[in-house]
Amino acid sequence: MSEKVLMKGNEAIGEAAFRAGCRAYFGYPITPQNEIAAYMASRMLDGDRVFIQAESEVAAINMVFGASSAGARAMTSSSSPGISLKQEGMSYAAGADIPLVLVNVVRGGPGLGSIAPSQADYFQSTRGGGHGDYYCLVLAPKSVQECADFTSEAFDLADKYRIPVIIQADGMIGQMMEAVELPPERDLASLPARDWAVGFRRQRESRHITSIHLVPEELEAITLARYKRYEEIKLRETRYEYVPGSGEDEITLVAYGTSARVCLGAKQLAHAAGISAGLFRPVTLWPFPYAALGKIAGSGKPLLTVEMSLGQLVEDVKLSLLETPAADKRLVHLLGHSGGVIPTEEEVFAKIKAVLGK
């Protein structure tokens, strides 16, 4: 086993990106993700790779588009308002089938909001975020270890499906420090060939990368083909974690990121009080594990969604019940906070008791 090191979540993301073969990073400072850009500034230059602090978030995402089009693994990162500015470029990347990795260390909103941790960008990341018909694959870590693991894997997923991949970590996950076992460093020569890239080869056919298709029928055909790829992603890459209670579950908590960590503590409080509570954590926010959660909902026991937003994740929890037609939407309950407020274990436990009438 490799030796573990103590790192912030943001730093682990940066190191894992470097080890995954990220050749170019473009960013712009904003709290609470600044450690990613600061780490990459040193690491990328020491590794003879490209680091640019762009003049804006808009410039940064378009630089990623260009670097990826030329054949390089490329990444950008930001926090909520900065991610909003990147959405036009994300839509262009999706429309041109450009693989890239984007990290969103979420802060309170809307607007400039606060620099405290939040999960209020859920709709933005899972519903495309920009204009047009498209999705991004979204991975949500709950630990510094997962920050490293998911970032390393994100580059492979982006290349495999030619899709933008988002690492969605709330500000607490980005700022906390934990011991982490870092993934091995990839040999750049071993990375998948990008035969579609523009590149700099002389004796080959001309390649044109674009997201504009002015004939409506042509654009629809291309979009439908992309949606077939989305169906493959749903089939192969949907991920979740389920932690059962101490007995037959009386209630199932649904949460991700920091909220899931809080729910683990609330589970222990429930166990001490003789209440069996399960925990369902979506690892991919898109594609969402509807079928798996729908199966749990089929038991007829209540679901309690815990999120650092005022009812976004809960919408997908409700959609999961469509997988089990007999399930009652009245079984779905919400404990949500906004503005950077983090739920407490005691608060979740109190809500468990209120839902169960205990």
Would you mind describing this structure in some detail?
The protein is α/β, with parallel strands linked by helices. It has two domains: 5-197 and 209-237, Thiamin diphosphate (ThDP)-binding fold, Pyr/PP domains (Rossmann fold, 3-Layer(aba) Sandwich); 241-356, Rossmann fold (3-Layer(aba) Sandwich), CATH 3.40.50.920. Helix content is 41%, strand content 18%. It is built from 13 helices and 14 strands. The strands form three sheets. It has a seven-stranded mixed sheet with strand order 3-2-4-5-7-6-12, with helices on both faces. Strands 9-11-10-13-14 form a five-stranded mixed sheet, with helices on both faces. Strand 10, helix 10 (257-272) and strand 11 (277-282) form a beta-alpha-beta unit.
Characterize the biggest β-sheet: 7 strands, mixed
Write out the strand line-up for the largest beta sheet, numbering strands in chain order.
Answer: 3-2-4-5-7-6-12
Termini separation comes to: 46 Å
| Net shape | globular
Structural class: alpha/beta
Total strands: 14
Radius of gyration: 21 Å
CATH class group of the largest domain: Alpha Beta
Strand content: 15-25%
SSE sequence, one letter per element: EHEHEHEHHEHEHEHEHEEHEEHEHEH
- Helical stretch tally: 13
Helix content: 40-55%
Name of the CATH superfamily of the largest domain: Thiamin diphosphate (ThDP)-binding fold, Pyr/PP domains
Task: Describe this structure in a few short sentences.
With 358 residues, the protein is of the alpha/beta class. 41% of the residues lie in helices and 18% in strands.
